[in-house]
Amino acid sequence: MTSETVDGPMQADGALMKDREDALMAEPMPRLETLEEVLEHLWAYAERGAHRRDNAMATPIFVTTRQDGAPGARTVILRDVEPGRALLCHTDHRSGKVQDVQAEPRTIWVCYDRDLHQQFQFIGRTTIHSDDALADRMWAEESPDELVFYYKKPRPSEHADSPSSAQDFEEVSEAEARANFAVVRTEIDAILWQHVHPEGEYRAGFKRQGDGFVGEWLVP
After folding, report:
1. Which of 39, 110, 162, 186 could form a cystine bridge with 126, CB 3.0-4.6 A?
2. pTM, whole model, 2 decimals?
3. The CATH number of the domain where 51 resides is what?
4. Is 162 contained in some domain?
5. What is the pLDDT of residues 192-205, one digit of tens each?
6. 10 Å Cβ neighbour count for 138?
7. What is the rounded CA–CA span in Å between residue 23 and residue 183?
């Protein structure tokens, strides 16, 4: 098996990455010929999803293992990306996904881009942050409209007598809402990617090695 150590995108020029990603978003997307190009695309695509909200990584599926051993999957909003390192979202600290992660931190973020015909899987270990600098920063940077869900008194997934929204319930104080807020951060250990291209589908995989990744081409 042949593998290749690929420099992580932390060393790449941010503006250059964005220019390249804009070009790649045009259809049909060209085949990527090197593992370095693929890895750069993976992280730039995730960043674009978090900050521009115009691709499938804006709302990936976050997969956990439930406490009874069954799989748990739900759509989340990707809020931030640490290039070459981690994916982040936020959630109610009382939610089931937090309990899942605390019991089993291994998780997957997955999405499929129907326009570009690509599947992305970001695999890693997840930690929950509720009372630290990371949680403070993300709470402060988020818009009030996005934080309204943390002001409801009932826990997520509790029984409701009728269809309802966060605004329908008794509100708690800002301090209580902040206590309900938690950041979900996944340190990425591996990435799988597949591109169904008109010239033939192909696949690549990457595993973390130190501050970078070792990549290899895989049979699709």
Report:
1. 186
2. 0.87
3. 2.30.110.10
4. no
5. 999 999 999 999 99
6. 19
7. 32
